[in-house]
Amino acid sequence: MSNNNTLVDELKLLYVKMGGKMADVKDVQTDAEMIDKIEDIAVNGVPKVVVLPMPQGSSIPDYSVDINDMQGADFQVVDRAIVGSVKKLTSGVLPDYWGAGNFMALKFIIIDPDVEPADVQVGIKGLAALDNDLIAAVKIEDKTKPFRVITTIDGYEYKDEYNLNGLSLAE
């Protein structure tokens, strides 16, 4: 193993000690890339909010929609990626307001005691603040763009992004 690989491996361990996930850096090859990742976690810290899929069999009363009608049983959040099948909605509250398309339903758990729902904005194209129910239905128009969670604390923004490339969108 070269000295550079040793340095990269040591930087990966430092990243994990700082609260990062090894899965986020497992493919990083250079010390410069790792330093960027470490600087990012030093600035943004560990996630202030945990993102979970809404469970099958549940519903979103505000939108009168069952989760089973929105996404498949394989829909999940894995590390910094949202994967699985998402169904197309053509009628109901969500498509009436945002147009027919693929929507995903997510639940958020705030793990930082200083964060209120209004401090958290989520979205792909635009951002919307979370309501007190901590549930969001998000229309997916371009799965090459990440789903973003931005938490503002004392004027500082903490950004988390989730890759959507692993989604299978129904036509």
How would you describe this structure to a colleague?
The chain has 171 residues and is of the alpha+beta class. It has two domains: 42 residues; 121 residues, no CATH class. It contains four helices and 13 strands.
Estimated structural class: alpha+beta
Number of DSSP strand runs: 13
Low-confidence stretches: none
Percent of residues in beta strands?
25-35%
Largest sheet features:
4 strands, antiparallel
Compute the number of structural domains.
Answer: 2
| Continuous helix count | 4
Determine the fraction of residues in helical runs and give it as a percent range: 10-25%
The SSE order reads: HHHEEEEEEHEEEEEEE
Brief write-up:
The protein has four helices and 13 strands. With 171 residues, it is α+β, with helices and mostly antiparallel strands. The strands form four sheets. Strands 1, 6, 7 and 10 form a four-stranded antiparallel beta sheet that branches. Strands 9-8-11-12 form a four-stranded antiparallel beta sheet, with no helix packed on it.
Write the layout of secondary structure elements.
Layout: H1 3-17, H2 22-25, H3 31-44, E1 49-53, E2 59-60, E3 65-66, E4 76-78, E5 81-86, E6 88-89, H4 93-98, E7 101-110, E8 120-123, E9 128-129, E10 135-140, E11 147-153, E12 156-162, E13 167-169
Parallel strand pairs: 5-13
Antiparallel strand pairs: 1-7, 2-3, 4-5, 6-7, 7-10, 8-9, 8-11, 11-12
Helix pairs in contact: 1-3
Essential attributes:
4 helices; 2 domains; 13 strands; four-stranded antiparallel β-sheet; 171 residues; alpha+beta
